Structures are given as structure tokens and as C-alpha cells.
Amino acid sequence: MTSKDLTNTPFLQACRCEPADHVPVWFMRQAGRSLPEYRALRKEGSILDAIKKPDVSAEITMQPIRRYGVDAAILYSDIIVPIHAVGFGVDIQPGVGPVTENPFRSTGDLQRLRELDPIQDTPYVLETIKICVEQLDIPLIGFAGGPFTIASYLIEGGPSRTYQETKRLMFENPELWAKLMDRLTQICTSSLLSQIDAGVSAVQLFDSWVGALSPSQYIRFVFPWVEKMFKEISSTGVPKIHFGVVTGELLQLMSEVGADVVGVDWRVPLDLARDRIGGEKALQGNLDPAILGAPWPVIQDEVLTILKLNDGHPGHIFNLGHGVTPNVNPEVLERIVQLVHQFRVNQ
Amino acid sequence: MTSKDLTNTPFLQACRCEPADHVPVWFMRQAGRSLPEYRALRKEGSILDAIKKPDVSAEITMQPIRRYGVDAAILYSDIIVPIHAVGFGVDIQPGVGPVTENPFRSTGDLQRLRELDPIQDTPYVLETIKICVEQLDIPLIGFAGGPFTIASYLIEGGPSRTYQETKRLMFENPELWAKLMDRLTQICTSSLLSQIDAGVSAVQLFDSWVGALSPSQYIRFVFPWVEKMFKEISSTGVPKIHFGVVTGELLQLMSEVGADVVGVDWRVPLDLARDRIGGEKALQGNLDPAILGAPWPVIQDEVLTILKLNDGHPGHIFNLGHGVTPNVNPEVLERIVQLVHQFRVNQ
What share of chain A is helix, strand, coil (3-state, %, to 5)? Predict the structure, then answer.
């Protein structure tokens, strides 16, 4: 554990809705993917293998910090790491995402989801965190996949557009759904607690695909578990960020469930998101990552529009509305950081 | 052209927000896909080949009418038919969707998008409509793909999750984007006008993927063209339905652009959709198609919830929030039609 006091860094101040020197900024997926130094380091090996090497993962975590001057680092890892570690049988297929040959379909499959013991099962994650924290002067963000999102990969067998099997299981066998969510919640919670113990300053719950649910489906099939998770983490005092895409109609619920910061995708203008969430929580977002290939004046315009829509609220962490895509030019992200840092409210 | 007067059928009454005997219902993708009699008829041939045979297409259009007792028929066709007909070089790959080997990337590609002459280029569509209208006692809905959605297929080369190339073209070369949209708007408009001339009683614009845009992107890059299209069609007097998924933040714009009926996906509760659109337009939707595999009591509950949220507004056409998926049991759709038809406001 580090003894550095990062409490009054802009990122953590914004998480608490306290005024900071500048609007803090980081990028989802800043570690990995688009960076040439990342591709040089990782070469051909699998992502899961790279994550198991703390020196490699720590280096990948640090790379964007050196290049961009962002206000927070995010651990290089993957949302399926804990599930993979307990031996469910899930892998990451390049160009596809998480896949499992034997999807979760019946009560018997619960046996493949034993409890996570983070120290035993994911020591490399904790070691990576320690190496990073030692080197960093800014907060490190730990993370986990939200229980719905993880469940959807396990049930569908891979990425899905319709989440049909997941919804079928929810509605056909709500008891089994509850048991699956119990198990995933335990795994997510203990992973996050172990990351906090190892030294991360904030955590983000990536319930990336939860926007496939209607509000009533969310209330019944997701809310109780995420609420339990956030309650258990609250005792640590670290800020909890909650993110998914296509969540326009869920923003209020995703805040009420216990988040301190709510991630907003590019579809919802920031002032409208604030109306839905209320002024007491911080927002994170929301530049459309698909425009990062556009000419700079276009990007500049969009960045400034977002900053202006925030209207000086201290609870704003600038970010993308979803992750950096592999073909993004790193120089563009660098310029965005500079632009956000230079912005002053009455500009 | 038929001489039947369908003006006072429940579907058309609801389009005009006039009270009807019962809430009208039809299902997007009701023709084809899930019906065993459809699979028996179409066998192994390509979709585009089936569409070119008016007797086959008319029969596929009629199949769900006989089975379900829905209040409207929808032409069996595909949104890429007009683009395919002008020779752009686009095909439908089973299990994938529309694909093109040579995507639209530069001004030169405009040459592959000549004007549509519906009588010359898509006579089979018009012939199918005439056969159906002859047989039907309910309105037939014609349709076209929205210019953004069609443009995205042409530019991306197939379905996309990020629409990165489409957005890159918009922002990098707005002049070329405008020319592409001009061309697609001409093609869509003349296709719709020809369908109306052949006898359809309403049209639906499927701008299915337009929800990938933020409101400001929609206003700049889509609104002017759809507005022009809807204006040209307005003179015919047939109702215009406007649909896309993930359009929570766009509903108001999709109404203001000139639609008479706005389709709502399952993410937005119907009362909230009405708040955003206002009480003067009709709504269409919005049962989650992914729950059609759930036990009947679950489906019944959801159907009744939607009907109750509508709160007796005469401008409601019951439908799914997106198309029927191939594995749906037709008996479930039949029961939904019965349930919707039996519903009375004070139930």
C-alpha cells in the first residue's frame, strides 16, 4: 500500500462533487488497444496471459499515463478475469470478445461458479495494482464487470445483440437467475474489495450491456444485487463509478442503486443526464468514441459542447461515452486531455 | 388499386389518433422468419430472389394475416431492395444481414447510386402490393429503410456496432454525406410513393439504427433529409410511421420531422415516450421481443402493462419494440393478438 495522499487530486475531488483545479479526464480502454507501445509489448500472446504477468500489466496500465497526462489510471485487466479464475471455462476470442463453449443454462452450471478467493485466484491482479500504485501520482481505478453483463456472456455463450437467452432464463426461472446473480455478486464484490485492499483509489462497475433491459426489468432482475454490492463496498469509502451504454432510461436507477458517479454514453446530452440523476451525484462522460477519427475541429467542438453542457458542476469527470476503439490515433486523445485541462467555465 | 374503403379500420383510426373498437396490433417482421409455412414456401433460395416473385412475396405477406388476425399486413420485402435494384452491389448474407463488398467511401461511389425508377427497377414490389391489396380486408403497410440506416450499410459494408466509418464520413466530408443522403432520400421517397400508388394504406420508415446518433448528430446529419421525404409523401395523405431502436433521446425529433406515428422500442416506458412526443401523435410499440420465449403469464403481464401505460390514448398501435426473431413460437403471437383485442381501458 502506498502512503501517498491522493484525496485532493482532481479525479477524486470530482467523484465527491468538490471543485478542482481543472476538469479531470481519463478514457475508458485507455490502457491497451490503440497504443503502438502496447502492441509492441503484448505481441501475439492472449490478453488473459498478459493480465497474468504483473510486470507486463503494470507497464500497460502506465503507458497511457505517460503519453496522455490523464487524471486517473485504470488497471489493465478484463471483466472476465475473476470468472475465468474460478474455472467457469470462458475465454477471450480476438475480434469477438468473451466466449464460452458451454453456456450457463441450468442449476448444474452453478457448480462451475464457485466463490472467488481473490488472493488465491487472482494474485496477479493484486500484484499489478501494487506495482502501479508504487509508480503513480494519480488515482488508480479498479473494476469489475456488472453481474448482468457477466451473466449475459455466460448464458449467451458470447456477445449478443438481443440477450434472448438471458431474458428467457430470467423470466422462465427467476430462482435460478437469483442464484446466478448471488454467485456473480459475491465474485464481483470480493474482487472489488481485494482491489481496494491492494490500493486502488476508486472502482468502476462496468455493467456495459445492461441497457438492453427496460427499467422494470432492471428493477426486478439487477437492482437488488448491484445495491448489495455497492453497500458492501461503501464501507471502504472509495468512490464507485457505474457505467453502461444505452442506459438513457436507466440513469436514475443506476444512480439510486448506490453509485457515486454515473457514466453516461454519448446518446444523452449531459444536461439531460443531470436532470435524470440529480445534482448530488457526479457524472462521467460523454464524448462519442466513433467521432475520434473526425477532423480535430469537429472533436474540439464536441468536447467543448460537453464541457459547456456540464455548466460548471464540480461533479464531472470527462471521458468517452464508451471505450477507445483500436484504430484511434493516440495524438487525438492527447489533444483532448489538453483541451479539457485548459477549459474554464466562463470560457 | 382496390376500391375497398379501409379508412375506418382500427389500424388507420389509431394512426390518426381516433378512437377504434379495439387497440390495433401487428408485429414488425410478422411476415417471414418465424413461420413454418414461410420456411416451407421459401426453402433454400435467397431472400432477394423470393422478393422478386410477386406470387411468393404476396403469399408470405398473407401468411401471418391468416394465422394471427392482426390489424395490418406488412409487405414482405427488404429495406435494401431499392438499393440492390439500382445496382449498387449489395446482398443479404444469411445470418448476417445486408453486406457490400465495395463499401461507399468516396465521391466516385455516387455513380453506383443512380436514381430509382420504381416501375422499371422494382416492378415486382408493385405487383406484390397489387396482389395483396386484392386479397386483404385490412390495411397493407409499405416501407423503406431510413437514409441513415441504408447509408450505414453502404459505408460500413455490413452491420456495425460502432458506425465509426459512417460517422467519420459525416464529419470529415459533410458535402459528400449530403450528396449521399440526397441520393438515398430520392430513392426512398420514390420507392414509398410508388408503393402508395400501388395501393398501400400506410408507410413505415425503418431508420432502425439511427439511435447510434446523439440528438445533435441527428439534427445535423439526418433530420433535413427525412423531413424532405415526409413532406413529399404527405400530399398522398397516407399515415407515416417512423421507427428505430435505442431512440429514447430522439423520439421528439423523430416525431417533429414529420411522422404521424412514432415507433418506440421496449426500453422507454410508453407513458414516458408520450411525454417526450406529446399527445397529438400516435405511438407504436413496445413489447420486448426478447421475452417472447418466456412463459405466457410473463408475456401477458408485460402486454397488459403496456396497454395500461397507454392509459386509453386512442393513438396507440400495439407492436413489438423490434422485429420478431426467427425462433419465436407463432402461437405466442396469436395469443398476444387476442389479448390486445380483448383489452378495454377500464379493465
Answer: 50, 10, 40
CA torsion sign for B206, B207, B212, B214 is negative
Task: Flag if A289 and B162 touch (Cβ within 8 Å).
Answer: yes
Closest chain B residue to the Cα of A245, Cα to Cα: B246
Q: Which residues of B touch A267 (CB under 8 A)?
A: 211, 213-215, 246, 248-249
User: pTM for the whole thing?
Assistant: 0.95
Host H or E run for residue B143: strand B140-145
What is the ipTM metric for this complex?
0.93
Top CATH class, B10-342 = alpha beta
Contacts of B242 (CB under 8 A, 6+ apart): B204, B205, B207, B226, B230, B254, B255, B257, B259, B261, B262, B263
For chain A, what are the domain ranges?
10-342
Closest A-chain CA to B213: A267
Give mean pLDDT in consecutive 10-residue pieces for chain B, a chain of 347 residues: 83 98 97 88 86 96 96 97 95 90 95 96 98 98 98 95 93 96 98 98 98 97 98 98 98 98 98 96 97 94 97 97 93 98 83
For A62-96, the pLDDT digits (tens) are: 999 999 999 999 999 999 999 999 999 999 998 88
By the CB < 8 Å criterion, does A168 face chain B? yes
Please indicate whether, in this complex, the C-beta atoms of B249 and A266 are within 8 angstroms of each other: no
* pLDDT 10s digits, A265-312: 999 999 999 999 999 999 999 999 999 999 999 999 999 999 999 999
Q: Of the candidates A172, A214, A288, which has its C-beta nearest B267's C-beta?
A: A214
Cite the DSSP H helix spans in A210-295. 215-221, 223-234, 251-256, 270-277
